[in-house]
Amino acid sequence: MVGIPGSSKGCTTCKRRKVGCDLKKPYCARCTNTGRKCEGYVKDWRQRVVETPVKQTADTRIIFQPNGANAFDNQLLSLFWERYIPSTDESISDGSPCEWLQQVISSPSLPDTDALQLSLKALAVTRLGRMNQDDRLALQGQSCYVRALQQLQKALKSDLAVGRDETFVAGYVLALHELFECESLVTSMEAWKKHMTGLEALVSMRGPQKHRSPFGRALLEEFRASLMISCLQDRRNSVLASAKWLARDWDETSNSLHPTIYDKGLVLASLLEEIDKANLSTANDSTLFYFLQRCLGMDTDLDIWYEEFVIRTPSSSYWPTPTVINSNEPGSTLGPRGLPRLSFLNLSIASTTVTFWALKIIISNTIATACSTIFSSTSRRESVASLNAVETTSSLDEVIDNSDPAASLDEVTAKAQRLSNQYNLSQRKDLATSIIRSMPYCLNFNMGLLGPQRAFFALRTALGMLRSNPSPEQKWLKSNHKKLAERYVN
Prior knowledge:
Layout: H1 12-17, H2 29-33, E1 48-49, E2 62-63, H3 69-84, H4 99-106, H5 115-131, H6 135-156, H7 165-181, H8 185-206, H9 214-234, H10 243-246, H11 260-278, H12 285-312, E3 318-321, E4 341-344, H13 347-376, H14 409-422, H15 425-442, H16 450-467, H17 472-489
Antiparallel strand pairs: 1-2, 3-4
Domain Zn(2)-C6 fungal-type: 10-38
Keywords: Nucleus
Organism: Alectoria fallacina
């Protein structure tokens, strides 16, 4: 079987990637044709005993290692990698689901004093200690984390080391450590956001051209996904939302639409910061309608992006699957409306799709809030003509004729009412329900740690939307959010 050491005749690289090998010698064509280094057909010395657990308990796989601390550390990283990525064939059919981390782990060993080696060891050892309920191993991981922070601080003070890829990777791995391994969710999120802010400054200093290599591009895309979440949570602008970065000069060879969803999210976060600074509750009509126009334009832009995304997907990106999976797994039951769960071609498509739905929820809620502000406003200092600048979709009623200076306040309110009816609570609940129905797939234990990481933003967005509107959906989401937290901490 591909990916199980000793049972496949494929090259070491193909076995690690869990893909079929064409067995050509001395180097397989699958590796050489894709620009990868074929590591040959040396038999992998790692052995493991796998027991199929009935439910998620302590890790039962055993590793036997040769002599030497470096070899043992490499085995720990290898086992962590297996726990991190999805194990299902369909979720890795489009290549490695986490290319940057795979390249880092498969690279030659670095000195134990290096920030990158220590940060990787901290993440792997702490996570494996938690999974196996081994306090000694978890404490060793925390010790590695402290040492990694010290080494990272030294690297950031060095003119030579600060611009290196390994320094950036070390900082991002430590951010993942905060996200996964901190005992308190609040403390974890705060520390993670601090890492994101520091890494954002480091990326800005490096510039787009520094990320044009395949590894640099993969690493930047991973970071942008996390930065988008941080910016949307804090409703703040980012340097990566500027035209310099949105031009994507560092990504001239890629034709994938998956990463461009992060562009949409970063631009939306920038817009939310502007709206907060404008204080719409006291703004005049021109300001209200200006931001309403931008939100509508953003919503239309997102819809156009999604249409292209669906067209490029080789078959249906998702479909209803009535079969109920193992009830011991997070999100295994059907949704509260009795709707079947959703399945996807792979985790990449699932992550992109639920992120799209989450962004739609945020935009819809922002438009509804602007309309509500119009309803409650008692001061109309601008003429209704300012409303006519709003570019609406074909599904909306015709705009008010700006040639009529006598248009009444009732027309302004009526227009806002039509927008409010389109972007209503029911629409946002439908989007949240779609996210709910996707969670059994994303939170399945076969998706490793990467599945919950990719679903975290959409799950939190849906929960936040339903928090002020009690419903069966809210109860279901809270249950899965709790299971998600337990899965990371325990």
